[in-house]
Write a structure and sequence with these properties.
It contains 16 helices and seven strands. The chain is α/β, with parallel strands linked by helices and about 325 residues long.
Length: about 325
């Protein structure tokens, strides 16, 4: 997360579970744990920016109240991912008795999928040994990177990206509190850029609001370094029509005007191809295949510009093949 925006995001983070937007089923289960004043080890899995950390912090506040500081330890495994973090900070905190009215403390290990296998094996034993007085909550983007013995010790909650209505609720709440006016096209642009990520939506508003209190589509796409969907669509359709030079010119404008990276362009092309109703499913499949190959080559270190122009050339050849 951008450190400049982090305090601003924290300002609007819900303080109670009932204030969390989206994930109704998960919130209801967490509220049950609060009511029972007990909980198992938990594993929160899902994409970034959808509310995993928010739910943990809200849960802790409701369980411990003012006693949260001495009963809660939050660590980010991507900063310290080796076995020493488990043998040191985690074990030291877990072995001490809590000072709150509850018989347990909570350790929240964010981005736990960044832990090495050795660290996860050590964590497994620690979770087992200190389960009487310590509960572990793990946050991860990919459950496949968490070893099975840890998964089996946890109740797994799978978070999905927020839907458009939830993102709009977040945006309108922030806009009201900050006295910011967001136009209708600006709101649609935020939803498109966020793609289910509330943190990304918040960062867009923060970045755009530094220059103006009336945010429109142009402000959002500029601060996010993204092209408008119709600009990507135009480039793809020009290539499909066989007009390679115009499509190449459109690509130049996108990369220069918005400062987009090659992977950003490929990612937006992928999103836009799916929604195109002017081309057949067969043509969509070919374009997606070409985009995937191009993205792989760019990731492996190939020249970005050459690969993107080669992608447009392949799309241009679809009609003639």
């Amino acid at each position: 997360m951008n450190e400049e925006f982090e305090p601003w995001i924290e300002k609007y983070r819900p303080k109670k579970l009932k204030e969390v937007i989206g994930h109704k089923n998960i919130v209801e289960k967490l509220e049950y744990y609060v009511k029972e004043r007990n909980l198992p080890h938990l594993l929160f899995v899902g994409p970034p920016g959808v509310g995993k950390t928010t739910c943990v912090l809200a849960l802790v506040r409701e369980l411990f109240g003012d006693e949260a500081k001495q009963s809660f330890l939050e660590l980010n495994a991507s900063d310290e991912r080796g076995i020493d973090i488990v043998r040191g900070k985690i074990k030291d905190f877990a072995r001490t008795m809590g000072l709150s009215s509850l018989p347990f403390k909570i350790i929240f290990l964010d981005e736990a999928d960044a832990l090495t296998d050795d660290a996860q094996q050590a964590l497994r034993r620690t979770m087992e040994k200190f389960s009487s007085n310590t509960r572990f909550i793990l946050g991860a983007n990919y459950s496949s990177k968490i070893i099975e013995p840890i998964q089996s010790r946890c109740a797994v909650f799978r978070f999905t990206g927020l839907n458009d209505e939830d993102i709009i609720k977040v945006v309108k709440h922030i806009a009201k509190q900050e006295n910011i006016e967001i136009t209708e096209d600006g709101l649609k642009a935020i939803v498109y850029i966020a793609n289910g990520d509330a943190r990304k939506a918040t960062n867009c508003i923060q970045g755009a609001s530094t220059d103006t209190k009336k945010i429109d589509e142009k402000d959002i796409y500029t601060v996010a370094s993204r092209a408008r969907p119709h600009e990507i669509e135009t480039m793809i359709l020009k290539a499909l029509e066989g007009d390679f030079l115009t499509a190449r010119k459109n690509l130049d404008e996108l990369m220069i005007r918005y400062g987009m990276s090659a992977q950003d362009v490929a990612s937006q092309m992928f999103r836009q191809v799916i929604t195109l109703d002017k081309i057949s499913d067969k043509e969509k499949l070919k374009i997606i295949d070409y985009i995937g190959e191009t993205d792989y080559r760019i990731t492996e270190g190939s020249n970005e510009r050459i690969q993107l122009e080669a992608l447009l050339a392949k799309i241009t050849s679809i009609k003639t093949s």
